[in-house]
User: Fold these one by one.
Assistant:
Number 1:
Amino acid sequence: MVPLSYYLILSVIVFFIGAFSFLTRRNLIMMFLSIEIMLNAVNISLVALSHYMQDIRGQILALFVIALAGGAVAVGLIILVLAYRNRKTLKLEDFNLLREE
Amino acid sequence: MVKIIFVYFAILIIASALAAITRKNLVYSLFWILLMFIHLGGLYLLLNAEFLAMVQLIVYAGAILVMFLFVIFLLNLKEEIKEAVFLHKWSSRLYGILFLLFFAFLGVWSFKNNFKGIYSIELIEKEGHTKVLGTVLFNEYLFPFLILGFILLVPLLGVGIVALRRKTNGTT
């Protein structure tokens, strides 16, 4: 039997890999992918807590997270395609339309 | 035996996540993330959540990553150019990570599990995981489920609007 803390520590490590990638990569698609990594890390801890506390509601929350991630990715990729159509790039430093020069 | 399987899944998840965030080509990192998602499904199987494992494989590995792949192939991206990024010194990155990990592990280790629900393993094995999940979902969480369906409708309309928009002279 694997203790609960192993799952939580795995979740923390994967979450910080995603957060590190989100902060350091400057490509918009890579930032979306790191958001996906972070959501999956949260899902690990939700399902593990649901299993060890013998309550099914955590898994329902994980199901909601998966569905919302699908919607969020769809909206984000629409915005990304439109931004690429206008700017011909996906680097984050080039999206400064609202900044005062 | 279970511990060996868990260690295998954990090592592969961490290694493939690290490999994914360090690739420069986006397609390679996408395939590493695909490997990570498949092993996450295996981890859910280890936690007796077989319906969630199948949803993970179908929705994440099947739908979301294919959507990313289509966008990457559509946009004809060059390789990412490395410039000065946020926290570009490795020492400051290391200190930041250690600082955050300290608080996270503090939270993990001080967690006390003194709550037991009614959905034990025996009940889930007797009833079937999908049936238990569906019963709770459609009894207690019916209204959030409906809102979730509405939230999933909005990106559909957004995709339609973006795809159908033509170049006109200022009029939609």
Note: The domain at 4-88 of chain A is CATH 1.10.287.3510 (Helix Hairpins).
Number 2:
Amino acid sequence: MNKTVNQKAWFFVIPVFVLVAFNAIIPLMTVVNYAFQETFGNNVFMWEGTRWFKQIMLSERFHASLGRQFLFTFIILFIQIPLGIAIALTMPKEGIGVPVCLVLMSMPLLIPWNVVGAMWNIFALPDIGFLGHSLNALGFDYNFTQQIGDAWFTTILMDVWHWTSLVVLLSYAGLRSIQPAYYQAAEIDGASRWAVFTKIELPKMKKVLTIAILLRFMDSFMIYTEPFVLTGGGPGNATAFLSIDLVKMALGQFDLGPAAAMSLIYFFIVLLVCWVFYTLMMRNEEKS
Amino acid sequence: MKKAKWLVPTIYIIFLMLPIYWLLNMSFKTTTEIINTYTLWPQEFTLDNYKKIFTDSTWYTGYLNSIYYVVMNTVISVAAALPAAYAFSRYKFLGDKHLFFWLLTNRMAPPAVFALPFFQFYSSVNLFDTHVAVALSHCLFNIPLAVWILEGFMSSVPKELDETAYVDGYSFWRFFFKIFIPTITAGIGITMFFCFMFSWVELLLAKTLTAVAAKPIAATMTRTASTSGYELGLLAAAGSLTIIPGAIVIYFVRNYIAKGFALGRV
């Protein structure tokens, strides 16, 4: 749509600007303030310069939680994206099956995140949970509160349970937008199922898949509540992802300076990815 | 090959339903049964857990608090986003792209980054432990969300509609309320659904900003779990009840949910 230039449009944007600024700029300035100072309580502050940033960047604890975060995000993307596409491809295209699938598959997306954690906790407990009990009955030595591998397995399985449906819904929407003529043409040419997938379906899904990958990247990068309720970051620090570690530092130990510096670094990483995504998306839109 | 096609979604749905079933199963059991035996369905079927929730005010006020701030947030977000989305979809103005990007960054800010400053900020303006505080703090991610979804719907309305109305002598506001808003009711409904949903599932900020008076149900659950030992049946019942609002609304928006995610969660 060709838009007209109208500077008065700013008046329409003011309520949104004020509300979001109230929530974003003032608290963010507080964080910046803490990041450069040392406090001994009683509102006494001393200028510290970039000391906290150096401390965080060099701390093993930050490297460890950042490493865990990237590993986690990479694993869940690697599972959820192909799995989501596969399920979307096999979903019914018409009839009663469509609403049934859509409603049932969306269920996990609407459950409060701590309930997801609590639900998986009682589902996976080795003595009374269905998953834990079954795995132990099958001869696996499974206990997610004690063993690091099991804790990771459970956290990843929970995230796959919670979010794969998002990828399914997006891919399904992308698939539905393909005109039947494409499939008819492919049939006339005698194209194989694989060729139809790589030459027609995948290119048509490109846009929604970009969205899906970036959504999953961002949301898994800020994951907090579900693993916090499920494992509490444990055993030890094995599943303490960035957010969990940050909240521990800020609200648990009240190390405001380092926590603030870590917040800013964390936010900067997300912002960087966000910017890359935004430019990519805008370029796509200009092309089409 | 063709016949086995329904297998994949079926297995997936069974996988999705298992933990939910287990939660429901637990909620109908007595505490002794949960702790002492492993049963696939309740042996002594009981509704005591639900009875406790509906009669004990510490429990049911949690639900009321959650619904109260979620509804408040939905109304604020949509009301503020409507004119802004219109401006973004119809006009070019100074800094529009930067503003849009800035809104986008707020959608992506990890709530953990904001937890501590929010706590201090809302305490200093005397809003700590009020519904308004939670409703306002959720605007951080729900307003950008509402702006994007609405902008998507508004951009699909042809501009000729506006122009014809002006030619017919409508003033801007009369056009906006009498003609424009009725044409995008579906979009507004979906936006409200998504705002409702994301405010409903968020816990970190809601928990940080409340203590007693406005405590959400989800926080009641976590605190019970850690203080009064293991009342798993009660916890399971409370969890099962939090699924219901989502399950109801999702039925109404089932055909739009993918579109909403695609538009709004970018």
Note: Chain A is about 75% helix and 5% strand.
